[in-house]
């Protein structure tokens, strides 16, 4: 099977991460603030160490939210892009909307990924060449024809800040949820319709989810309509959108109109 070794490594690393996380209790864990104000816990750093020990080999690069960035990754053809605990705020608060996210990037393109959501007992793994599975069962993005009645997963933080009020009369429903990696994984697995964020996200937030959505037959794009490229010097996107193939134009047209109305 194509990418058998990569997928095996991803699965083993996610299993190891879950074992590490069993030592901690979501909602009852101390945290500190990193530079910039984001929270970090002992669980984040412990999972990061486990993933770093299992994933990169040889000349493969590494990019993680919990490791100081090494510019040497820019010279690597293959780079592991991970977020040990995506949704740390939810993890601290005991909200079951967090995940472990592992993405593999080759020549700037996300080609494989794995995301596990321990609180929901979901593990979603896949690669461009072999498709996606959820808990070892094949899956794919949903088949949608329009935005009417679909449910869009939105950032819990963005909704809390009022950034989704512009969509109050939208033809779709909005559900707030933490962890962008989890939202992307649910879209890839056919367990949600679509998701997007119009605020900056780092590569470690979305590398695995991007690989999974694309491997499951969906589309991922940036607000300027481009396919995202990874392993950049500045590992950040100004936003990201993901949905089943065929409704990208409807989403872009609706968002353009909604944003234009906000500026009037």
Summary tags:
alpha+beta, 5-stranded mixed beta sheet, 7-stranded mixed beta sheet, Fructose-1,6-Bisphosphatase, Chain A, domain 1, 264 residues
Please sum up the structure shown:
The protein is α+β, with helices and mostly antiparallel strands and 264 residues long. It is 30% helix and 29% strand.
Query: Which stretches of 5+ consecutive residues score pLDDT under 50?
Result: none
Count of individual domains: 2
| Global outline | globular
> If classified by CATH, what would the architecture of the largest domain be?
2-Layer Sandwich
Q: So, the CATH homologous superfamily of the largest domain? A: Fructose-1,6-Bisphosphatase, subunit A, domain 1
What structural class do you assign from the helix and strand content?
A: alpha+beta
- The CATH topology of the largest domain is given as Fructose-1,6-Bisphosphatase, Chain A, domain 1
**Tally of DSSP helical segments:** 7
Major sheet size, sense and barrel closure: 7 strands, mixed
